[in-house]
C-alpha cells in the first residue's frame, strides 16, 4: 500500500478468549496492522496502551473480550471490550503508584493517550463495556 498523507479510514476487530496469552496476540497483531498501514511511529505507544486495555479486560473479567483498532484521518483509536458492564476503576496518579505491581493500567493510558474513556456496550448477547483511547498521528 503506498503511503499517503492521510490514509483512508479503517477498522479491525479481534475477538479473544479470556486467556492471558491473548494480550501478546493482540499486541503483535496491532504491531502488524500499524506497520502495514505505514503508522510505525505510533507502534510503541499503541502497543503499551493496547497491552493495558486488553490486560485489564482479561484480568478483571471471566468472559470473552475483543480488541478494536480504528483509524480515521490523523486519529488512532484502540479499544478493548469485555463482558463486565461495571465501569473501570478511575485511574490513580502515576506518582502515587510507581512502586505498585498492579493498578497502573489506566493511569498509563491516561498519561500516554490524547484522550480516553469508556462506555457500556453489548456484544454478541453479552453485556459489557468498551474502554478506549486515542492517539494522534503526531504522538
Summarize the structure.
The chain is of the alpha+beta class. It contains three helices and five strands, in the order βααββαββ. It has helices spanning 21-36, 43-59, 105-112; strands at 10-16, 65-72, 75-82, 115-120, 129-136.
* Gross geometry: globular
Strand count: 5
Mean pLDDT: 87
Number of helical regions = 3
Structural class: alpha+beta
How are the strands of the largest sheet arranged?
1-2-3-5-4
N-to-C series of helices and strands: EHHEEHEE
Summarize the biggest pleated sheet.
Answer: 5 strands, antiparallel
Low-confidence stretches: none
Using only C-alpha atoms, the radius of gyration works out to 15 Å
Query: Proportion of β residues?
Result: 25-35%
N/C terminus separation: 22 Å
Percent helix among the residues?
25-40%
Explain the layout of strands and helices:
Layout: E1 10-16, H1 21-36, H2 43-59, E2 65-72, E3 75-82, H3 105-112, E4 115-120, E5 129-136
Antiparallel strand pairs: 1-2, 2-3, 3-5, 4-5
Write a structural description.
With 139 residues, the protein is of the alpha+beta class. The model has no long low-confidence stretch (mean pLDDT 87). Strands 1-2-3-5-4 form a five-stranded antiparallel beta sheet, with helices on one face. The longest helix is centred in the middle third of the chain and has 17 residues, at 43-59. The protein has helices at residues 21-36, 43-59, 105-112; strands at 10-16, 65-72, 75-82, 115-120, 129-136.
Amino acid at each position: 500500500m503506498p503511503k499517503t498523507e492521510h490514509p483512508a479510514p479503517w477498522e479491525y476487530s479481534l475477538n479473544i478468549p479470556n486467556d492471558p496469552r491473548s494480550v501478546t496476540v493482540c499486541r503483535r497483531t496491532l504491531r502488524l496492522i500499524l506497520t502495514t498501514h505505514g503508522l510505525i511511529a505510533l507502534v510503541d505507544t499503541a502497543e503499551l496502551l493496547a497491552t493495558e486495555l486488553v490486560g485489564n479486560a482479561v484480568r478483571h473479567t471471566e468472559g470473552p473480550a475483543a480488541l478494536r483498532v480504528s483509524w480515521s484521518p490523523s486519529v488512532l483509536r484502540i479499544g478493548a471490550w469485555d463482558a463486565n458492564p461495571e465501569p473501570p476503576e478511575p485511574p490513580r496518579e502515576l506518582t502515587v503508584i510507581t512502586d505498585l505491581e498492579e493498578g497502573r493500567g489506566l493511569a498509563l493510558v491516561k498519561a500516554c493517550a490524547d484522550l480516553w474513556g469508556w462506555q457500556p456496550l453489548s456484544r454478541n448477547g453479552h453485556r459489557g463495556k468498551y474502554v478506549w483511547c486515542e492517539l494522534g498521528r503526531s504522538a
